[in-house]
Structures are given as C-alpha cells and as structure tokens.
Amino acid sequence: MMGNNREFICLSYDLIGNGYFQKLTFVVLIYFSCFAINQVGASIHEYQNQSFFRRSNSFFFHGGSEGLYASKLHVDPDKKPSPEENHLNGKSFIRFKSITFRRPKESAEKKNEMQQKTGLVEAIIVEVKDREKIGGSYLHSAAICCTPDLSKEGSCNVGEVIIHQDPNYPYNPQRIQTFFEGKTEETTMVLQTVEINHTGMYYLYFMFCDPELMGTTISGRTVWRNPEGYLPGKMAPLMTYFGLMSLAYLGLGLVWFLWSVQYWKDIIQLQYHITAVIGLGMCEMALWYFEYANFNATGNRPMGITLWAVTFTAVKKTVSRLLLLVVSMGYGVVRPTLGGVIFKVLLLGLTYFVFSEALGLVENLGNIDDLTGKARLFLVLPVSLLDACFIIWIFSALSQTLEKLQIRRSMAKFALYRKFTNSLAISVLLSIAWLYFNAADPLSELWQRAWIIPAFWNLLAFVLLVVICSLWAPSNNPTRYAYSEETGDELEEEGISLTSSSVLLAGESANKQLERKERRASNADLFRLGEEVEEDKRE
Cβ(260)–Cβ(275) under 8 Å? Predict the structure, then answer.
C-alpha cells in the first residue's frame, strides 16, 4: 500500500507525541493502469486484505484521516428517518461497514474452542490534538499496549491499547473492541456509526496487542461524512473556490474574445496561444468544480471526470509554462521562430506534462489521506526540479531579450518586457514567501486552512495570465510588439513622426534627381543634333 510509510510516521507522531527512461516507463505504467479503475474511494475508505504493522509493542493499521466538522443535527432515537433523509443531512460521522479481521490458521488452532474471547482487535478514533492520550507517554513509558507492570498500577488492562481518558471528555479518544471467538479465523465488526460532535482532524487506527495475532489482515470499508456532504473538511471550501474561478476565467475569456473580434485583422500568433491558455483554464476549473460536487454528493470519485480534470490541469500547467518561456525568448517580437531550440522546449514541456499528470493521478485517484509515500515523493521531486528549470530558463531568456531590445533601441518593446519581467519576479517572490509561511504540517493540524495552499497557486497563475493579457492585448497597432525584418521596425512608435517626414524628403530628392537626369538627357540630344548639322554642312 502506497501510504504505509506515511502510516508508520503518522502513528509515531500520534502515539508518542513527539535512470531517466526507467522513470518515464514507471510513470506511463501508472497512467495506463488507472484506466482499469471504474471509481475510486475517497471519503469511502476501502480495505482489501491489508496487513498490520508493528510499532513498539503493538500492531497497527492506519484506517484513514480526515478533517471533520461537528454535527449540526443529532440522532433522534424516537424518530424514524425517511428514505430520502437517511439521517445524513447535517450530520458528521464515521461509519464502519463490513469490517472483517482474519487471523492466521496457526493462531486460531492454538485457542480453546469453548473460550469466548480468544483475540482482541481495537478500532481507535482520536483527534490529532489528543494524540498524546494514546500510549504510555503520560506514564513515562514507551509502550503502546498495556503491560503487566502498568496493569498492576491500575492504569490499564493487559492486552489493550493504553488510552488516557479525560473525565471531562470520556469519549475521546474512542475505542471500539472486536473479539475473536474460539478457534474461528474470522470475526466481523458490528455495524456501527460514530457521530462526530467536535470539529477536528480525526485519525482512525485498528490495533491489537497479542503477538499471536501477527499476520492478521483487515477487509471492509469505513465511510466518513461532514455535515454538508462527503467532501473532507480540508477540501470542502475548494468546491466553491473552483466555481468562482471558472466564472473568473469565463469573464476573462469574454473580454479577450471581444478584444480579438474588434481587432481580428491584426491578431498575431502569440495571442492565439494566450487564447488557448484561457480556454484550458476555464475547462480545468469547471471540471474540478463538477468533480468536487460529485465527490461531495456520493463520497466516490468517478474515474472519468477525475481523469479529465487531472489531464486538463497537467495540460494547462504545461502550456502556461511553455507560453511564459517562448514569450521570454522574444518569440514573435525579436525573433520570428525559435529555430533549433524548439526541440528542447518541446522535450521539456513533454517531460513536465508526463510527471505532472502522474502526480495528479497519484494525488486524486487514491484515498484522500493517502497523499504521501515513496510514489508521491518520487513524482514531486521531478516536478519541482522541472519547475526550477523553467524558472531559470525563463529569466535567462528574459535577460537576453532585454539586452537585444536595448541594443536595438526598441524602447517600446523594452518597456513592455520590463513590465513583464517585474511581474514574473513578483510572482516568484510571492511563491517563495508562501512556501515559507506554509511549512510542513505532517499531522494536518491546520487542516481548516489547507485549501488555501492550492487556491493560492491557481489564483497566482490567473493573475499572471491577466497581466500577460493586458500587456499583449489585441490592438490596431500590432507592430508595437510584432517582429519585423525591416530596420525601421527598431524605431517603433518613436520614429513614426520622423518616418513620415523622411518619406517626404526622400520623395523630393528623387524628383530632383529625375529632373537632373532629364536635363542631361535633353542636353545630350541637343549636342548630338548639333553634330549632325555640322556634318551635313561639310558634305
């Protein structure tokens, strides 16, 4: 399981409190393997014969973690719910469905057939702020399970996980016990719904202390729900955000369309690329909105719409970065084509798309809390390195472009690119500052503001796109930033008045030269005529 490393790290926090082508092949395999999936569990966490892992003197399995808001409505035991309501609206809960534990046959055969309780597995629900209440840390012990010595002190029962109960909050952390009976190899957890009455980040662990149960596996699923739907608390605000961003892209697209229609005869190639980025952004935000809306309503993330959303995001990010790069190189402004460098640009873009797509699939086609581990780290590092390559190349190209424009004294284009450079520099500084103020949060204790992190990147990209649209907006004078082979192009708008006067002067000079030639020609004709008359007289 991809999240096992994360599970091990998170439990330690909770319980103690304190080759290029080979990579591409791996990513492609991840991508195409996803087509075999019809839908992916999200707030519905599936367990399929998965194993427990040893930690201290216990064995654990991480069942999930989500930010949950407190229920707005509580169960009325005297009221029979209607099929439509189904006791869901306004409620927040964790529901255990068909949870089955299976122990090894050798372990079952060692037990007495007549004995009722021959093995114990506990489900423990703990809010992250109460993680120190699990284990023996408050007893100055590294043990997670109760030992005979601790049991003598009356602080716990042998064979159970140590939980320090606060008299004011006796149900947090909460444990649910399930026993094996006799020599049975399987036991099923009673169907149970645990209502959430306090807002917080909750972790679910399945644990046992008996070493003879080593090799036990778990199957089944748990359903996690917030009062407004199945979207986890840290993702819920993003649904509204994506809806607003799709409207923002729609508004930008409408303004850009009216601009383009007004000056359709003067559209340059670069402006078509800007149109493509606006369209991709609009589709991306709309797809994410509908994906989140479906997730919120059903608790599942259908393969189709999620894959489309991830793909549009990867394509838009790739095209946006390529647009920034070719603009920085002066494409269409100081150079008509990219020449041989186009292959390097396309290779960088293709590589970025592949890794960005794979990272998006790993993040969005698994359980929502399963966002770390070796597979994700393997993909995050290449994407980060490729982003760094884009940034270095962009600013290097900008420096060369500004130098060329300054040498040619193309002051209008120079001013345009200087504004563009300043905008990029500000965006990079904001990104660095944002990373600094959003340090790692391994336990997701700041889950209520976690949605701001992806929202910031999307908003920053949108603002940068608006800046580019304003700088390269369609107009009736496209030559102010269009490439021209004539040297007069280097004079830009400053030379327009001079150009008209120079044309008049050139015209007058040409007329004078023509008159001189005509006079010379007429004089030559008269001279020849005089010679002919003299010859006739001699004869």
Answer: yes
Q: Which amino acid is at 11?
A: L
**Residue percentage of the chain with pLDDT more than 90:** 25
- What domains can you pick out in the chain, each with its CATH number? 44-75+87-225 (no CATH), 233-482 (1.20.1070)
Residue 203: which residues within 8 A CB-CB, separation 6 or more? 10, 14, 62, 64, 65, 125, 126, 127, 128, 131
The answer to whether residue 381 scores a pLDDT higher than 70 is yes
* Predicted pLDDT of residue 12: 37
Distance CA 449, CA 456 (A): 11
Residue 184 makes CB contacts below 8 A (sequence gap 6+) with 108
The whole-number pLDDT of residue 367 equals 54
HEC profile of 491-503: HHHHHHHHHHHHH
Gap between the Cα atoms of 215 and 92, Å rounded? 33
Contact 318, 345 (CB under 8 A): no
- 139-150 pLDDT tens trace: 556 788 988 888
Q: Of 322, 323, 342, 318, nearest to 270 (Cα)?
A: 323
Query: Higher-confidence residue: 497 or 128?
Result: 128
Count CB-CB contacts under 10 A for residue 343. Answer: 10
Q: Report CA torsion sign: 403, 407, 408, 410.
A: positive
Angle between helices 374-407 and 20-33 (to 10 degrees): 120
Phi, psi of 183 (to 5 degrees): -105, 15
Q: Tell me: pLDDT of 69 over 80.
A: yes
